[in-house]
Amino acid sequence: MKTYTKTEMLAIWRDALGLNPVNSNCNVSSVEGIDIDHRLCQLMRQWYLNILDTADPRLCPVTDATRQADLSRRGLFGLITLPEGTRRALSVKMSEWINPVPVQPYVDVMDRVRRMASAFARPGCHEPLAYNGAQGVMVAPAQGTVEHFIVIADPGEELYILDEALLSTIPECLRHVRDDGNCL
Q: Buried (b) or exposed (e) across 49-63, using 16+ Cβ within 10 A?
């Protein structure tokens, strides 16, 4: 995992696109044009947020957000409100659960959620449930306190924290820009 400043990442992008000036002992002056650095910074930000949302977690900045996890109970469920800057929740463990569980998309667990009407089909401490809800991470059973909460968080617009292997996706991202006008 490596940390780059916005300026360092811009230089990497300019180099990857062949936009760095070459010293060929000539004079060049610019009269008007687009602010290419501003546009590249916009594309860099979109590219990075997409990485945080979709890339293999081993290549992203993983953070222990247990101390920032705010739990509220809602019937059979608990809702963990995501700390500010969180892009994706990865795993959670309540103090009464045996092991941490991955946070899953709702579509992957909706049948299990529907079956919770039956007391015999409800999640227990041996097979708890955690999924992404509209307002945060839904957990069941909501017993105890949040003991473990691992997320991928955005470090802000001035830092890029990622595995260097993801830098190879820069040109791929820009090919999409050429095709449909959007980086994502």
A: eebbeebeeeebbbb
Q: Look up the pTM and report it.
A: 0.83
Q: How many CA atoms lie within 13 A of 38 on its CB side?
A: 3
Other beta carbons within 10 angstroms of residue 96's beta carbon come to 14
Under a CB-based contact definition with an 8 Å cutoff, are residues 102 and 150 in contact?
Answer: no
DSSP H or E stretch at residue 89 = strand 86-94
Beta carbons of 147 and 84 less than 8 angstroms apart:
no
Taking only the tens place, the pLDDT of each residue in 109-158 is: 989 888 888 888 889 999 999 999 888 999 999 989 999 999 999 999 99
CA 44 to chain centre: 15
Q: What is the CA radius of gyration of the chain?
A: 22
The CB-based long-range contact list for 173-177 (8 Å cut-off, 24+ gap) reads: 173/43, 173/47, 173/50, 174/17, 174/43, 177/43
Q: What is the pLDDT of residue 62?
A: 96
What is the helix (H) or strand (E) element at residue 47, kind and residue range? helix 36-54
> How many CB atoms within 10 Å of residue 70?
11
Instruction: Please give the Cα distance from 147 to 95 (Å, whole number).
Output: 5
